User: What shape does this take?
Amino acid sequence: MWDRFDEARVRAELAQMRGIGLNTCRSFAFIPTFMPSPPQVAAEPVARLRRFLDLCSETGMSSIPSFLVGHMSGENYDFPGQAGRSPYTDPEVLAWQEALVRAVAQAGANHPAVAAYLASNEMPLWGGKASPETIVAWAQRLRSALRSVDPHRPFSLGDGVMNLKGGQNGFDVPSLRPIVDFYGPHTYAADSDPLRQAVNAEYCLRSVSYQGLPVIFEEFGCSSCQVSEENQALYYREVLHSCLSSGAAGALGWCFSDFDLADDPPYTHHAFELGFGITRADGSEKPVCGELRSFARLVEAIDYPSLRPPRPNVAILVPSYFHTTYPFSWEDRDRMRRTLLQSYLLCVAAGLEAELVPEEVDLAPYRLVLLPSTQKLLASTWRALLEHARRGHTVYWSYFGGDYNFHQGMWCQNFTELTGCRHTLRYGCADQPSDPAVLRGNGLELTARTTASGPFPRAFLPVEVLDGTRILCSDDRGRPALTRKAHGEGQVYLCTYPWEHYLAEQPDVNREDPAHTLYRFLAENAGVSSPYPSSHPSVQTRLVESAGGPLLWVTNHDWRPVRTRLDTPGAKALHGTDDVLPEGPGELSLQAKQVAVFRLARRGP
Assistant: This one.
């Protein structure tokens, strides 16, 4: 864009953005254009950036400039002369970066169109991995360079929070909290189960929200090569409403327009990247633009600044092993992520407000802590979980026997004290479940296939239940499957089967599976139930407070029409439907991916 800057076309596209209902776009300081001869920054691209910001103001748009764009759409672009040197540690390359940051910041300083700045675009894909200490030092240098020129605008890294996939690339969320003003996850995840895929956006947001900083869903989208235009519109609808109702500070879709650049890299080898736009290359609008207009009208109508989304009171505990490579410990982190996502989906289906919390975080705010299909935690965490229960909270743990045949079995040193059970494991042997496995009792009746993984991941935990511990559910052979141990006013539930793992390894399983009833049972006993639960597991309900009164989001995450029962004080529709919710119990029909927003009546005294 900067090499072939067409002011009339840029103005027209910005005006079109605003007309669709958008108010912000990212802009990218492409390294080979802005710094073709380091250490000098090219004057003309910087001037064009300043003019671009003027055009944003003139058309009612704002922008988020990104300083170090060495990665874009499937290809990396180094500084000329970089010669493989690290952008994080090489003194000369660091000086080049600081010069580029200052030049871009000078173009944006005091400009009303600048909403924030980003250091990079998916920096780990260009700069690679490093230690958290190295990344913190690098990020601090860039922030200082920015603050020397434009000291008051929000700043983040544009890294995409890629550690949400597991592992440690150095862009560590807790370590970077003192440096960034907001977090910005990116995601293009797919899943074999449509409902798990449907809640992936929320999963990403709720994986960093525990830090207490604003979260912008900084990049999501889909190419028309990957999805029909009609279903692209439904995907945007679902993601945008998930962001708004869960408390995100914004959402940025990739990207505005398709490209007619089939002969230019990286599109020559990543042809699907040509079709990510919400508009086509000829400027015509795809159906998603109608969704964006409708969404923008809703944001204006509900007084967005006054929204108070629900604060999660359920924690899904993320083992430190998901990010940290401990000596002589091996984990399948793809499997761990699927399991955590499956647990989050069950929370959504049960009407719970949950967030993903690292095991090192203080659990005091969470009345219910979930350890889905978990083998390993730090020894200190197992002790902390017992103390959390003793303080009157609820802990749920489902067993997992390990990914491999080395160091298999349980890693909990205080198992008997925590659960009130005694295990009868045999060394090196995996106790194989029936197929399907059954969990039955106390109004619960669950069945799951168990053959999707190897003998150790699918194993169950044989236990003897000690005095004072209740058996709530048994399996098909009468063995304990769900137990409860009271700890004062608190309690620990043990599921002897890795139920979330069973479901996470299966395609298209959640539409008909009743496993969410287990989570609803736990929530009722922990005192964290939804105020307006949906009877259908594909339908999510969320209560959001606002200055104009409480709002109820009702979202059908299914690709099929469904009917759900709701019990509310009555409500009028604000968005997405013409239906009115009656006072008391009633039914609501929802089309595929339909989102309805209601203004609830206030209940009498």
The mean pLDDT is 96. The longest strand covers residues 562-575. The radius of gyration is 26 Å.
